[in-house]
Amino acid sequence: MTEPCLRVSDLHVMYDLGSSGFARRKRLHAVNGASFEIAPGETMGLVGESGSGKSTIGLSIMRLIEPWSGKVTLGGTDVTGVSRKDVRTLRRRMQMVFQDPYSSLNPSMTVSQLLEEPLIIHRDLPKAERMKMIGEMLESVGLHAGYAVRYPHEFSGGQRQRIAIARAMILHPELVVLDEPVSALDVSTQSQILNLLKAIQAKSGTAFLLVAHDLAVVRLMSPNVAVMYLGEIVEAGPSGRVYDAPAHPYSAALISAIPFPDPERQRNATRIILRGDLPSPLNPPSGCRFRTRCPFAMAICATEAPPSVPVEGGGTAACHLHAHGPKLGGHSILPFIAQKMGAA
Amino acid sequence: MNNAQPLLDIKGLTVQFPSPSGWLTVVDNVSFSVGRNDIVCVVGESGSGKSVTTQAAVGLVQPKGGRVTAGSVMFDGQELIGASNRTLNRIRGDAIGFIFQEPMSSLNPAYTVGEQIAEVVRRHRGASRADAWKQAVAALDRVHIASAATRAHAYPHQFSGGMRQRVMIAMAIACKPKLLIADEPTTALDVTIQARILEVLKELQQELGMSVLFITHDLGVVADIARSVVVMYGAQVVEFAPSDQLFAAPRHPYTAGLLEAMPQVALERGHDPIAIPGTVAQAHAWPKGCRFNPRCVHRQDGPCTTQPIELIADGQGLVRCALAGELRLGLERRA
Q: In Å, how far is B82's CA from the nearest CA of chain A?
């Protein structure tokens, strides 16, 4: 097997919340042992609710947040082991696009300066060469080369996100972390950006880690997906398998909650409505973290953390239902849910 | 009460806001109505005028520097445009309840949620403290806050985002309004929480026999909740139709374009989403003729580009498209 573009092994991230008074020093375990790989030129989607730790994973891969433990390698190079100074050279190979194009671009720099900055830092090129690259990059994200002299405020949200993508892509990185790249955009421009990202990837062979809460966007963009809940990956695998035959009750609930633009279908849809609320990550439930909201929780779920089991059709799921109770044995959870909901 | 009359009837509403280059028309001759026991969704993108329309209807644009230059808003037999602040203050929060996108900024962090809901009941209903508190707890219970009597003593920061939004709904329905205006109430929330909120809203609408005016940009949410849909683009209503008709056979190319651009629809049909080209029209530079024409794949020079387009009847709804008689937009979607 060829070396994956990105390999994340047993990543843990803690946020130190400090101590107050006599209280014990508090740490928030934001990511609890995440492992996954992305092949070169591929996209993996990372979905989950806010507070699930999906953005934290993206940031710690970039070393914008220091991981607590675990290992991240980029094309075989250790990212977690290098000094902070050497991270900078690594950033030439991995870049990030943020959610809000209004706050992620320096308003006092022209588009040309914004795109030139990474070239100046990482590449030793004559000015004329840099300008040629900037012109070409702008064209490839669908912006007129003449826009190079303008400032970010002169552009709409969608155009700004094109600039942010151009800035991330100009060094031909191996990996780009896309953190909610379209969620701040208008509906009609969202799909422009999604199609642009696909086209750019097809040409450049850059791998994407797509962090998003919009499940339809993730499925559209990513052949593989990982579902996060309270700092843990609860299910992962090929998108088609995870969406059509989820093996974890949380993935099933998430997917059933995507509203489809067809009133008749919405009326007849069986939705798994989750009761209760996301528990505090400061004090996660014992055993399986999802058990407090799981409609199918059993006694064992409170005592033991569920192991990851292989799922038919690819990927894994961490849920006791596969070895206990109905003993799903790595199959889709949907028939079990239909039976339960039919009985109720 | 005359039940034949709509609960809320907006006619020719026009709203302007000041800009460095003079007054800009951000809501242009907007008309639609909300029946009794009805759920109407207003869809549109940023700058379409969807939020300003509803704010203007209840007298909330003047404090922000805007002005209503024309139109009428009849609510339950009463004209709201030009009504005194006293009248509007009496109606807002009582017969008309509100929920907004960001629940944290609409709740006072210094008071318990029970106190804040009880305050609304006391002000509008003149209820005693004890009675108002009871009604506040009942309202929290209605939105499925577990152990409402205890949680009423909690402060907003002690609730999660989804629960805060349910607290906001509890506050909005505490006085049993006839109309609930919900402005992007689920936009900042995750899908599972969103599904829950939509379920609660539909349930309350039935229980209380109220009407809901729901503003959103998400057509998936619209399909879930709406009976009728108002589509806005460039400060105008471009389509107003029963939900089933709108989704099965959209009459306006913008509506059809929004549907085609949705990832859910593209996935179903096994191809990339069909993006609407260009960017959203801006109030300082409305295109001549149809405001959507620079982005429209069906555009015809002449009919679409010279004269302003009128809203005309089509099917069971209204559409603002010069080619409305010729285009068959929904058909390829259904095939």
A: 34
Q: Kindly identify which residue of chain A lies nearest to residue B222, measuring between CA atoms.
A: A261
pLDDT mean values, one per 10 residues, chain A (344 residues): 89 82 74 95 93 91 93 94 88 91 89 94 92 94 90 89 95 95 86 94 96 92 96 96 96 93 90 81 91 94 96 97 95 94 72
Say what angle helices A157-169 and A127-140 make with each other, to 10 degrees: 130
Contacts of B158 (CB under 8 A, 6+ apart): none
3-state secondary structure of B112: coil
CATH topology of domain A6-222: Rossmann fold (3.40.50)
pLDDT digits (tens, 9 = 90+) for A259-290: 999 999 999 888 888 877 778 888 899 999 99
pLDDT digits (tens, 9 = 90+) for A242-253: 999 999 999 999
The predicted complex's ipTM stands at 0.85
Q: Give domain limits for chain A.
A: 6-222, 245-343
> Hey, what are B110's tokens?
């210094």
* Residue B34 half-sphere exposure toward CB, CA atoms < 13 A: 28
Question: Residues near A128 by Cβ (< 8 Å), separated by ≥ 6?
Answer: none
Closest residue of A to B193, CA-based?
A274
Is there a contact between B112 and B153 (Cβ–Cβ < 8 Å)? yes
Going along chain B from its start, the domains and CATH numbers come out as 1-95+179-192+210-335 (3.40.50.300), 106-176 (no CATH)
For β-strands A69-74 and A77-78, DSSP reports them as antiparallel
**Between the CA of residue A133 and those of A94, A124, A129, A194, A199, what are the distances in Å?**
18, 13, 6, 23, 18
* Rounded (10°) CA dihedral A271, A275, A281, A286: -110
Helix (H) or strand (E) holding B165, with range, is helix B161-173
- Rounded to 10 degrees, the C-alpha dihedral B322/B324/B330/B331 comes to -120
Nearest to B92 by CA among B204, B208, B200, B172: B172
Q: Let me know if B85 is exposed, middle or buried by CB neighbors in 10 A (0-12, 13-18, 19+).
A: exposed
For chains A and B, count residue pairs whose Cβ atoms are closer than 8 Å. Answer: 128
- Predicted TM-score (pTM) of the model is 0.90
- Res A19: pLDDT: 65
Q: Do A213 and B190 touch (CB under 8 A)?
A: yes
